[in-house]
Specification:
There is one protein chain. The chain is an alpha/beta fold. About 35% of the residues lie in helices and about 15% in strands. The protein is built from 12 helices and 13 strands. The strands form 2 sheets. It has a 7-stranded parallel sheet, with helices on both faces. A 6-stranded mixed sheet has the order 2-1-3-4-5-13. Helix 10 (about 245-255) links the parallel strand 10 and strand 11 (about 255-260). The relative contact order is 0.14. The model has no long low-confidence stretch (mean pLDDT about 95). Bound molecules: nicotinamide-adenine-dinucleotide. Nicotinamide-adenine-dinucleotide binds near residues 83, 183 and 263. Nicotinamide-adenine-dinucleotide binds next to helix 4 and helix 6.
């Protein structure tokens, strides 16, 4: 039963797991309309009659789309993710649309996934798995290195970056970090802050945990790769455009980059989260990346743990409760 303060909420980019966790968290308080399409200009009309829309990382809320949503009476956007680079906050404010996100949901899950990617690549688990199933028990090509005493560079030491730092310190690594603001928790873990140049030059492994902003766009590009150690491992669980894909492909071909793990990819929209197994992959750069034995790609799944899904659903519904009741929402984003 939909209560008095409840809203009609159109949920874009729905997968079965979104429906399950959001329905349970809402417990009937909001009328949730689950739609599979992503929010783009052509699908914005599907929000007609809703007071709020619920969006994920591949939904677009730029000026024309926000204008279309506002014209239909949409007043609120509830992002069921932490990153908000896909929403034009200033335009949302101009159109009288409030935006809230889920600022934190198990940062451990993302950090642990970054560690899993690193360990898999280093110890060649992805190759060993298929090899032994094919009856090949040889070790050639599976040589890794001890992480102990290696230097790990972390760009962005917020909630996820600091968790990753803790894991790496647990492995006995030295951790260098670059951030626009120092996190005392990282300092207490023994993380050494430094300039980007020193991090690039000194790190065996570089892991990206900063948000995507104009300042961080292509923070990994040809000239930054040139300053790195030969054989560097690069891990990206942040956002795809933090990395210039063409530049890392060149770095992989030359051997400058020793291994690359991507949970996010510059052009992931329309590819990640979809089953395209029966189709031809149209993205030549992604297809090239998938040919390297030292590249591991996962489909933006770092967040995908039971704990995170529960937290995301409860915070999202809590944000919608605040909007519906006209209360200040602690997770609202300023335009
Ligand atoms: P956070 O806000 O807690 O931390 C971000 C950190 O980046 C902060 O310390 C901030 O000062 C720093 N930063 C900002 N601008 C910077 C710059 N120019 N250079 C260096 N550092 C800068 O965020 P978080 O929860 O730790 O998440 C980090 C990012 O991870 C998110 O923005 C999101 O894009 C990504 N993420 C990915 C997944 C996934 O499933 N792959 C899930 C959640 C978050």
């Amino acid at each position: 039963m939909v209560g008095e303060t409840a809203m009609r909420v159109v949920v874009f980019s729905t997968k079965p797991y979104d429906r399950q966790f959001l329905t349970e968290a809402s417990a009937g308080r909001h009328e949730l309309v689950f739609l599979e399409p992503r929010l783009v200009l052509e699908t914005a009309g599907l929000a007609a009659g809703a007071q709020a829309v619920c969006l994920f990382v591949h939904d677009h809320a730029d000026e024309p789309i926000l204008a279309a949503l506002a014209g239909m009476g949409v007043k609120h956007i509830a992002l069921r993710c932490a990153g908000f680079n896909n929403v034009d906050l200033a335009a949302a404010a101009r159109h009288g649309i409030t935006v809230a996100r889920v600022p934190a949901y198990s940062p451990h899950g993302v950090a642990e996934h970054a560690a899993a990617l690193l360990m898999t690549l280093n110890r060649r688990i992805h190759r060993a798995y298929t090899r032994v199933r094919d009856g090949n028990f040889a070790l050639e090509g599976l040589l890794g290195f001890d992480l102990h005493d290696k230097t790990v560079g972390i760009i962005g030491t917020g909630k996820i970056g600091v968790c990753f730092a803790g894991i790496m310190r647990g492995f006995g690594c030295r951790v260098l970090a670059y951030d626009v603001a120092q996190n005392p928790e990282a300092v207490s873990l023994g993380v050494e802050y430094c300039e980007l140049d020193r991090l690039f030059a000194g790190s065996h492994v570089i892991s990206l945990h900063c948000p995507l902003t104009p300042q961080t766009h292509h923070i990994i590009k040809a000239d930054s790769i040139a300053r790195m150690r030969r054989g560097v491992f690069i891990i990206n669980t942040g956002r795809g455009p933090l990395i210039d894909t063409a530049a890392v492909i060149r770095g992989l071909k030359s051997g400058k980059i020793g291994a690359l793990a991507l949970d996010v990819y510059e052009e992931e929209e329309g590819v990640f989260y979809e089953d395209l197994s029966g189709r031809i992959l149209a993205d030549d750069q992604l297809a090239r990346l998938l040919t390297f034995p030292n590249v591991l790609v996962t489909s933006h799944q770092a967040f995908f743990t039971r704990e995170a899904m529960l937290a995301i659903a409860h915070t999202t519904i809590g944000n919608l409760d605040d909007f519906a009741a006209g209360r200040p929402c602690p997770n609202a984003l300023k335009g």
